Amino acid sequence: MNQSWVRVWILALGMVWGCGQNPFPIVPRLLARPVAMALVCFDRQSGEALDLANCTPTASSQGRSLHALVLQETRGEIASIDLDARQVNDSDPAIPGATHVPTMALPRAIVVPKAAPRCAFVSSESERAIQAIDLRRFRREGFARAEDHDPFPLPAPPAGLVLDPDERALWVALPERSSVMRIGIDGCIFGESEEIILSGVGGRFQVGKPEEEAPGNRYCPLGFEPAPWPSPAISLDVPVLAPAPSVLASGPELLVGDRRLPLIHRIDWESRSLLPPLVTGAPIRDLVITPMVPDSLDPNAPPSRRYIYAIDDRDGSVLVLDHSDELSEQFGALLPVGAASALRPERIPGLLGARALEVLTPRYDEANPWAEACFPERLSEREVPPAPSVLRGVFVAAAMDDGSIRFIDVFDADALCRGRAAGDPADCASTVEPYVYIRRHRPRIGERRLLPWVNLAEVALSREGSASPLDPQGSEFDTIDCPQGMKGVFGSDGERVRAKICASPDPFEAAGEVWRLRWQGALGSGRPFEGVLKERGEWWVLESGIDPCGLGVLGSAAIAEAPEPERSGEADAVALLLTLPVERRMDRACQEAFGLVGGRLNEAPLIVQIEDARLREDGRGELWIKRDALLLEREGEIPLAQALGCLRDRVVRFEVRVRGAYTVFGSRTGLRHRVKSDAMGRCRVDSQLSVFWQSRARPGELYRNAALAFRIALRPSSGSPEFRMVFSGLTLLNLDIGALTGFGTGRGLALPVDVHWSAPIGRLYVLDVSRRGLLEVEVEPLRYTTRRFE
Amino acid sequence: MLEKRKHGLYGCALFALFLVQACWLENQGVAPPPQKLNFPVALLLVPKASPRFLLAVSSNFDLRYRAGSLHVLSVQAMEQALRNCGKEFCTFEELGDFVVSEALIGSHASDIALSSRGDRVYLPVRSEVDLTWIDVDPESGALFCEGTGQPQVCAPRRRSALRGGDCGAQVDISGDPVTIAVGRLAEIGGPKESPADYILMAHRNGRVTLFVEREIDGELVPVLVDAMGGLPNDVVNASFDAESGRLWTHSAFVSAFRPVREIASVVAFADGERPGCARLAEGGRLSLVGVDDGLESRDALFREGGRRIYLLMRRPEALLFLEGPARPFVPWEARPARVAHVGSGPAQLEAMEWDGRRWLVVSCFDDRRLWFIDGERGSTQGVLPGVQGPYALAFDPERKWLWVADFRESVLYLVDVAPLAENQEPRLVARFGRPRPAQVLR
User: Fold this and answer.
1) Residue B332 pLDDT
2) What is residue A25's predicted lDDT score, i.e. its pLDDT?
């Protein structure tokens, strides 16, 4: 055959193939912005809903199937996902993609009774109603028998929704009416309703006493002492505003989180009367209540501690309240669960940006809390040995803005066995896990640790671009007595009582940070700023877009008014990074001002003292310099004006540098200082803030912040040497959802909105609104299952 | 053989003729049809508080025509037409009854800003890599850019700015202009009585250009006076905080090999020593923490004197609520107080405020929906489908209307947002223009 014809035929076939319809199947997404979920157990044959307790891990083989009903915000639908068959139920196969059960627009919450469920109850803010949806609608087998029910109209848009403990009533929050409504239900039929108006007064704000050590806490090596709980002084004014009940939780009474007032309201289930509220100090985004947990090592004593964990709606931090004994003085107290070094010691460290909470109770029975606990003599019997990622007991899971799920220890039933070697009666004898830290209300640590919690991995000194490790016996630091609560981590004696560098041994005070100490270093991120110099009477005012108070600038006026230790320091200086214009380089006065070194122009910045720093109302910053200021670090008396007269214009690049001290910058802590703008916008030290917030360390003087202490001996005569201290990090237990849902080496983006614990089957479910997915997680150990729906 | 060669010669001749015709470089292209939107990319209501005119910038995105266009539509005429329509959803395919003025500009204009005096608009135009400035009569809506013809073709003088060589270093414009902001020169240190404005133009390559209006022959004329680079690349938008005069740039996530983690800002200073000159300076950078992963922002709005920032992100697809100044201990590190998810492909952000309440609306281009968020709680208040390519937004506070430019279909949609005050979802009430779908846009 003619070769050219062969080519034509090949080309034609290729075109025909390329012109085919839909050559690559597109799989539509199953879920569209899922926001809430409920679990239901179904009989696969009849399509009828069963008691949730029927869906045990072996139920699938008996014709029962656990389903997730997922509310979808985009289209006002409910997806029904068969978790055992691993499929999304499609209510109309004729339409491409999964077709879900329609509900009202913008559905907000869904609840399904655990016993004898007939309907799912869905609330809608935009339609101001609660809809009862026959559960048979969610499986094809029962679809034909499903009944329609009229929605229950509400007098205002609803927020949270929960069931009564006996599941005979719904409770719904109505923030615009400052009330909560109770609606009787019988199967799918709505009954009588009653509205309970909330009060914005009452309750007593108190910060609780630090808790004594509780069982379930565990530390190795022997003799390790955790940092004491802080004793923050917090005062609170409850604003006079109408309550705005938002989130509901089911406890011994109905708990109602308020999104406007710093309160959790309480309503007695039976009498429906208001109980004294709990004063939280913050409006609430979400809240959960734990079961009773043990407070004693006596396995026969009933558990007697219970806690409320709640999210501060202003910043997503997590706080803890006591809810143990209403007769106790501590009842309702805000517990000091943070780190002393933290900005807010009454918040759980490491949990900023929480979106939702859930209590997990794997293998925990409140009536018999020690039944599944691990005891050292029976360690070898454990099928899954105790480990950081194995959760048995009571924990709180927090869905975070950063796309992760974090965990908080409440009662770890395996704690007594951690750090032990099977068959060895000695305590803390494990060589695999010599360091253990489990502490109630702390984020759970997710690693087996071989090094001390606070481990100074490296101390180095950089001079003129070259770094070298420091000798622990060297003279750069003086040896000091470690302050109380700290231990030596560098250059220590055997007891670690005297050392060159001391740090708190508690990982939540001092771990996971790189500290940089730079002689006369610059404030800020290290990048120079730009501004314009203006003449104002007897002053030069350097105006810029930078907030000097936020930077921590201290002029001489601020130093004079400051308390110690700031008062003993020198005023900061501005370093002008200028280049002498070419046309002025032969000018003698300019040469003198800029300096000549060996016949060449000095490239060092021009440094002048700052007299004052201010933040203007328009957000621009001002640095005030005396009009007759002399350049520092120059021979002779050279006025700044002489140098400025050599410039083309007054726009300058500059840095703010400390004088006579090292800047202390932590990679996690930042440049911690006490400078704020006062009523007139002047940058001044706020003595109400902790004296441990210090950003400068002066040679020969003790420097101490909440995490570390030292006394630098080295006072350089030139250059800007920098010390670098690397404290090894701490791995918290967390689920990184973005890592799971990415492709190859890339991450998928994640934004979990809800976490849901299923006690009968011991699994955790996570709704990710970003990837539009539902994930299932096991907890012994913590890992994703293969059931994932997107 | 000879026949074959003849055929071949004829074929070559025809082909050559075709090539010559295609290379006719004097062919100006087809003029855009009058009174028709063509990939509308920016909207502006004038005056803001009580709008009488809606300005719509058409970008000529597919370069089908030889120019982009700027239309001035009468809001009152559209309001009257809506009243006469009487249906729940009204369509008006012809815009002739509403267009009061029209001007042809360069292709690929991407933004529009109004002068502080309310009598001039500025547009960054990518095809010309320059600033276009057009006068607008606030009473009649008439446009004037020294053009001829109907619609008027803006004169070359109005499609560029003078170069201000007397302010110091020689500067020129470099990089695709993307967005624009205008402020009063007096607010950055210029003469208090001066009516002159300063104009900031952000470019895709991480540069910002500064223009200042100078009085020349009795007319205020924009003059290029400064430019700075060194900002993050791949700028797709910029947001202006009028109170602090800070322009924040937003960069796209183009490649994992060069992620842009910072949102940079610039400020301008009038040079008190040299009237008519001003300089740019960097105003600080924001680095987001606590979100997954914070590498691509799209838009921002500033309220309460800059103490509340609404930051629209694509990574994650969410609206971030930033409170107060950045964490003081790590300058410029910002952690959101609240994260509100939105639809896919969020593009632009607009605030709607009345009676002490605030809502944010996000145009979600990929999702083909508008997403309404409560400005305090961050909760979703409405999800409105029905717009194929929602992009630019403009809120009319007097009528409680939201105008939406549909980039995919080159039409305008009108949304009644008053129901938000009753916690109801907004509703689509009208479409202006004949849809010309562009299906290839994702």
Assistant:
1) 55
2) 42
- CB-nearest partner of A551 from B331, B335, B343: B331
Q: Comparing B20 with A23, which gets the higher pLDDT? A: B20
C-alpha separations of A318 from A342, B210, B217, B320 in Å: 13, 46, 64, 19
Contacts for B125 with CB less than 8 Å, ≥ 6 apart: B68, B105, B106, B107, B108, B109, B110, B131, B132, B159, B177
For chain B, the average pLDDT equals 89
Give B306's contacts in chain A (Cβ within 8 Å): 619
Contact between B183 and B245 (Cβ < 8 Å): yes
**Minimal CA separation from A185 to chain B, in Å:** 26
The total number of residues written for chain B in this structure:
442
Residue A358: what pLDDT? Answer: 98
Mind listing the pLDDT tens digit for each residue in B308-340?
899 999 999 999 999 865 433 344 567 899 999
Q: How far apart are CA A763 and CA A779, in angstroms?
A: 7
Question: Which of A:592-631 have CB within 8 Å of B?
Answer: 617-620
CB contact under 8 A, B282 and A543: no
Tell me the residue length of chain A: 790
Three-state SS annotation for A389-416:
CCCCEEEEEEEECCCEEEEEEEEECCHH
The strand ranges marked E within B278-368 are 278-288, 296-303, 308-315, 318-323, 333-334, 338-341, 346-354, 357-364
Nearest residue, CB atoms, A672 vs list B273, B316, B329: B329
Exposed/middle/buried for A393, CB within 10 Å: 0-12, 13-18, 19+?
buried
- In one-letter notation, the amino acid at residue A102 is P
- β-bridge partners, A179: A174, A197
Q: Which of residues 25-54 of B touch A (CB under 8 A)?
A: none
Across the interface, whether the CB atoms of B273 and A770 are under 8 A apart is answered no
* Separation CA A42–CA A48 (nearest Å): 6
Q: Which of residues 711-730 of A touch B (CB under 8 A)?
A: none
Q: What does each C-alpha distance from B85 to B28, B37, B51, B88, B90 come to in angstroms?
A: 40, 22, 21, 9, 6
* Per-residue pLDDT tens digits for B85-113: 989 999 999 999 999 999 999 999 999 99
Q: Are A529 and B281 an interchain contact pair (Cβ–Cβ within 8 Å)?
A: yes
Q: Give the nearest partner residue to B283 out of A105, A545, A770, using CB atoms.
A: A545
β-pair type (A752-758, A480-481): unpaired
Where chain A has pLDDT below 50, the residues are 21-27, 743-745
> C-alpha A349: how far from its chain's center?
8
Q: What are phi and psi of B10, to 5 degrees?
A: -60, -45
Per-residue pLDDT reduced to its tens digit, B163-202:
876 776 678 899 999 999 999 998 888 888 889 999 999 9
